[in-house]
Every structure is written in structure tokens, then in C-alpha cells.
Specification:
Layout lengths: L10 H35 L4 E23 L2 E3 L2 E3 L1 H5 L6 E5 L2 E2 L3 H11 L3 E8 L2 E8 L1 E2 L6 E2 L2 E16 L5 E4 L15 E15 L8 E6 L6 E7 L2 E6 L10 E2 L9 E10 L2 E12 L9 E5 L2 H7 L10 E4 L2 E10 L2 E9 H10 L1
Antiparallel strand pairs: 1-4, 1-10, 1-12, 1-16, 2-3, 4-5, 4-6, 6-7, 8-9, 10-11, 11-15, 12-13, 12-14, 14-15, 17-18, 17-20, 18-19, 19-22, 20-21, 21-22
């Protein structure tokens, strides 16, 4: 049984004092945690990625997933003209992924299956605008060479010259182009099965003029690939270097879009041999609500580059853009009516696309 007499005297004051101390401690704890939480948020917001800006010309080889229909045609048969592709509803831009549930990734595989079927009915699995379709048809036998054909021109690979934008030294992740690789006939983004980049040398330049874009002309190296590709996206083509130490340089922070501003900047470009040089440019406009890869507009101000190329030319896509000691973006397009001007994508958007794939 509790002795109530001990509740009199100094005990109530001690209890009140302890309560005040606990309340004060709670307030101090709350105040100390709040700035800490805000600091953590600030640190996350300022979590900066570092990459090595490159500007090195490379050969890019891409092999598609499935075969892309780039055109339709008629076939001469003993019964007259026929086009199984047209009859079953195939369209330019469609990607044939399977024939009778057998996966096809090359022109040779399609041709082999058509001959083996010997004109029998077959089921085509087709990808159109990210939707899967099924079509039934029969190949027609050509009266000229006796081969069975669909009446569709198809493509399974592409190759060209581009510019490496960056490599992340800690992972070997690299980005190039700043835009996707589209089929030249249909403008459809090629679906990637496999691919790689190899070293290249710029052998010549077709100088750009207002109304006529120029281009870099180069030769691929026959040596082993520098790296393999894993993604072809609207914001760039990405892969990993076989040896992360193959390409070296000084790493710089990647700027957030809000840090990019109008004013002087530079680009790294390889427009002769395999030498990368830095050229001055001016960022004319920054677009924070762009729906494609045109996040900023730039103008070449370096007379050396103007004398060599006339400004921005095809093949320079991917050339890194630097400002205030940071990599802010990559060149993506040339303005046809103004050869000295072009568009660029934010570097941050390229990194986001590389991680989302």
C-alpha cells in the first residue's frame, strides 16, 4: 500500500521540474531533427553525377530486334502480280518478330523460313506502334527465280558515324548521339537486339550551308568493339565499355537543367582524324518544357569550326556541351536554314533515359 504522506513537501516540485526537462528535451530534439531532415533532402537534391565528356567519333552498329518493314512491293508469279504483305495488312514501319512462333531477327532467317514453308499458310507476329498484331498469309513464289517471297522490303541492321558524349568512370556506362537511331526510310525507332561501338576516323567533311546540312565522313576500325549497346532510346543510345579504362579524361559534374543558362559555352567535337578539340558556342535559348530532345538552342561562334564544317553537321550528334565547368548537354540536331546553329538535349535527360531502360 502506497504511503500518501510522501507526496507532500518537495516531491511535487521535483516532478514538475522533471516534466519541464522532458518537454524541453522533446522540443530540442524536434528542432534538431527538422534541419537534419532538410539537410538530407538538400543533399539528395544535390547528389551530383560525374562523367567524362568525350566528343570522340565512333562507328555505331545496331542490329534490330525483329525485322523492320521499310517498303512493300509486288511479286511476279505464274498467276500474275501478287503481294502477300499488302494482302495481310502489313505496313511500312511494322516490325516482324516471329513467323509461326519462330523468332526472326535477320533477313536471312526470314528467307530461310519462307523457303522451308514452301507456300504454306503462316502466322506473322507483328509489332506496330508498341501494339502486338497477328496476321495470316502465304508467301508467293516468284516466277523469275522460284523463291518464295512476302513482297516486303525488310531491314535488320544499321551502321553509321556518331559521337560519344560521355562515359561514367565508375561504371563504364556511356552515352552517344543524344537522340535515337531511326530507320532512314520509315523514321521508326529501331528496336535493339544487339550492337556495339568501334573506333572511327573522320576522313572528310561535307561543309554545311544554309538550306543544306553538311556531314562528317569517316571509316570504321576493323578492331574489336570498344563497347556493347543495350538501349536505343529517343534520348540517346547507351551501352557499356568493354574496358572502362579505354577512354580516359577529367570527370566533371553533370549540370541539372535548372543550372543551364543562355550565354557562352563550349562543345567537344571530332571533325578531323581522331582528334577531339574544344570549340566555343553560344547557348541562345533554354527550353525547360521541351517534349523532345530540343532542350536548348546553340550557335557556333568558333571561327575554326565554322571554317571546317560551316557549323553543326551530321555526325556531330552527341558532341558534349560544357558550361561553367559542368557537362550540360549534347548536340542533337542542326537547323537546316541556319548551318551554324543546332539543338541540344540536357545531359541530365540522357542519364535518366539510360537508367529507365
Amino acid at each position: 500500500m502506497q504511503d500518501t504522506k510522501e507526496r507532500h513537501g518537495p516531491a511535487p516540485l521535483a516532478w514538475l521540474f522533471r516534466s519541464l526537462l522532458l518537454l524541453l528535451a522533446a522540443v530540442v530534439t524536434a528542432l534538431s531533427l527538422a534541419p537534419g531532415a532538410r539537410a538530407a533532402e538538400i543533399n539528395r537534391d544535390n547528389d551530383t553525377r560525374y562523367v567524362i565528356p568525350l566528343g570522340q567519333a565512333v562507328g555505331i552498329k545496331l542490329f534490330s530486334q525483329g525485322v523492320l518493314v521499310v517498303g512493300l512491293s509486288d511479286i511476279s508469279t505464274n498467276q500474275g502480280l501478287a503481294s502477300p504483305a499488302k494482302a495481310c495488312g502489313l505496313q511500312e514501319g511494322d516490325v516482324i518478330t516471329h513467323i509461326n512462333e519462330e523468332k526472326v531477327d535477320s533477313i536471312e532467317e526470314v528467307q530461310t523460313i519462307l523457303q522451308e514453308l514452301d507456300g504454306q499458310e503462316m502466322e506473322l507476329s507483328v509489332l506496330r506502334d508498341e501494339k502486338n498484331l497477328e496476321m495470316t498469309t502465304k508467301a508467293a513464289q516468284c516466277s523469275t527465280d522460284g523463291a518464295y517471297k512476302l513482297g516486303a522490303w525488310i531491314r535488320d541492321s544499321m551502321a553509321g558515324i556518331g559521337t560519344l558524349t560521355f562515359v561514367e568512370p565508375s561504371t563504364g556506362l556511356f552515352g552517344t548521339l543524344g537522340h535515337g537511331i531511326n530507320d532512314v526510310d520509315t523514321s521508326v525507332l529501331m528496336t535493339l537486339q544487339s550492337g556495339g561501338v568501334t573506333s572511327a576516323t573522320i576522313a572528310g567533311v561535307v561543309k554545311g550551308m544554309d538550306g543544306r546540312p553538311g556531314e562528317l565522313r569517316g571509316a570504321f576500325s576493323s578492331e574489336a568493339d570498344l563497347g556493347t549497346l543495350y538501349a536505343n532510346t529517343k534520348s540517346g543510345v547507351f551501352g557499356h565499355l568493354t574496358d572502362p579504362k579505354t577512354l580516359s579524361g577529367r570527370a566533371v559534374p553533370v549540370a541539372k537543367p535548372k543550372e543551364v543558362h543562355e550565354g557562352p559555352a563550349t562543345i567537344l567535337a571530332n571533325v578531323e582524324g581522331n582528334t577531339v578539340e574544344e570549340y566555343t558556342v553560344e547557348i541562345l535559348k533554354v527550353f525547360h518544357d521541351a517534349s523532345d530532345t530540343r532542350d536548348l538552342m546553340l550557335k557556333v561562334t568558333d571561327q575554326r569550326l565554322l571554317d571546317r564544317t560551316g557549323g553543326i553537321v551530321q555526325g556531330m550528334s552527341g558532341s558534349p556541351i560544357l558550361q561553367d565547368g559542368k557537362m550540360v548537354g549534347a548536340v542533337t540536331h542542326v537547323l537546316i536554314d541556319h548551318a551554324d546553329r543546332g539543338y541540344g538535349i540536357f545531359a541530365q535527360h540522357m542519364l535518366e533515359a539510360a537508367e529507365e531502360t
